[in-house]
Amino acid sequence: MPQTTDDRALEISRTIPATPEAVFDAWIDPAQLVRWWGPEGVTTPHCDLDPRAGGNWTTTMRTSNGEMVVSGVYTAVERPHRLAFSWAWTQEDGSRGHETVVEVTFEAVAEGTRMRLLQQRFATTEHRDNHRMGWGSSFNDLEKLFAS
């Protein structure tokens, strides 16, 4: 995945202490995804995943302020190397908000897996920065999933 200089793109790299297969599966197995998805302190009481190109996905995240739903369509599911999908929050009126695209790659390294996330086409840099905090916190929980 080439690095981007687009100010409406978010790029995060994290090394996870597990194999690429295990980390990839944590993204597509509902039983694992609900254990780490969403910022720390947020729960994921519901997810519906159809991890194949063209398959839909939806997650519901619960905070102290209520629930938020995000959904999209998988565009690539290449275990254990690459996962790509669209992403949009459900708005109060039930419509889908601004859509971004996400690509996650998984590379074996001595310490486990180097996972790189690229999310592009944010409406604003503020939205990008909010996602940086959210993904960073989520990845803390993903690391904990493999530390146990």
UniProtKB/TrEMBL annotation:
Record organism: Nitratireductor mangrovi
One Pfam family recorded for the sequence: AHSA1
Family: Belongs to the AHA1 family.
Domain Activator of Hsp90 ATPase homologue 1/2-like C-terminal: residue ranges: 18-146
Gene3D superfamilies: 3.30.530.20
Entry protein name: SRPBCC domain-containing protein
Species lineage: Bacteria, Pseudomonadati, Pseudomonadota, Alphaproteobacteria, Hyphomicrobiales
Cross-referenced SUPFAM superfamilies: Bet v1-like (SSF55961)
Highest taxon in the source lineage: Bacteria
